[in-house]
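Hello forum,

I keep getting stuck at the same step: I have a sequence, I want structure tokens, and every attempt I make locally crashes halfway through. Rather than fight my setup again tonight, could one of you with a working pipeline run this one for me? It's a single chain of 386 residues.
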Amino acid sequence: MDPKRTTRATPSRMAMRRRGRDKGPGRAPSLADRPRRGSYRIRWTLAGPRSGFWLDYRVARIALVHDIAGVARIQAQLLREAGHEVDQIPLSELGASLSWPAKALAIPLRVAAYVPAIGKLKSNRYDIVHIHWLSQGIVGLLLGRPFFAQAHGSDLHVNMRNPLVRRVTLSVIEKARTVFYVTPDLPAYAPGFDQKFSYLPNPIEIDDQAEPPPMKVARALIFTRLAPVKGVDRIFPAADRLRGIVELTALEWGPLANEYAQRYGRLVRFVPPVPHGEVGALLSQFDVVIGQMSAGSLGLSELEAMAAGRPVITGIDWSLYPKDPPPVIAAADADGIVAAIEKLRHDEGELARLSRDGREWVRRNHGFERHLQLLEAAYFGPGASS
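Reply #2:
Ran it on my machine without issues. Output:
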């Protein structure tokens, strides 16, 4: 399909699906007009002087199992707006906060707690079962029917280092129809499954009424979980050198939060994490955001900051983004962070460029419309989404 035509058509299609009340021969079918759940693809033509092309559609009943960082909640919203029937099925997190080996001892209890969810999945004739977090993919193995799995990060790079969980994780990858991954670094942790993995970037909401770009750098936010896997040991050594240049704030969040608050409390203001709905308001208080330093890819924190129009300094592996490099400032350690802030301090033009280009990059790669297109194409085939 012509990319320009797709761009024009998509909002109208989404709007018609939501309303279902457009008049004329080209209206989108209402739920009453469409086939029952699980039925096959139907087609209609968009009316209009320049239309006449076809759009494929399928009404499906979809189960989204478990949720990570609200991603399944957003997917449910998008799929419902597209006309599908969606059930969100939570799973017990019994023992999830324990450390090894106590966590291993809790595994049988947790699997037993999954039985009601498995029963619901078996008793309802879902067309699509989509399970978030590879460890929870054991539900798909016990279900005994095709399923999709979605990897979010440590369920790959941590699981694959643990002999017990590694075996379960590999079984889930082998049995799943498709394994979605949310950041481009993840497939490297499970080599040999290139044909099974499918890139599904995290969906990010972009507020059209964004805050204006910063004009200088006076306040910086360390916007990442305080954990070794985030490379925070490369970030906080910059705090002493940044004192007097910027006011530095960090989230008191993660396994190292108490230790870092005690060690750097005189240099960094620590604030509690906020609910997702308040993230935009939090980010608007800062001129620049410092993200994680070790993964090489952009996580939810960095993406949320870019969507809010905040320039981002982060550890980035450019080879992971060969087609569309993200407009961020690369830094690998404290020296890089200090140099980036010094460079940006009074460069109003660069701050404005990073703010504008960052939002547009997120819209292209992580916007809701794009996410729905990728999701429907994976579920039903490439022709299923415009």
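The chain is about 35% helix and 15% strand. If your local run keeps crashing, start a new thread with the error log.
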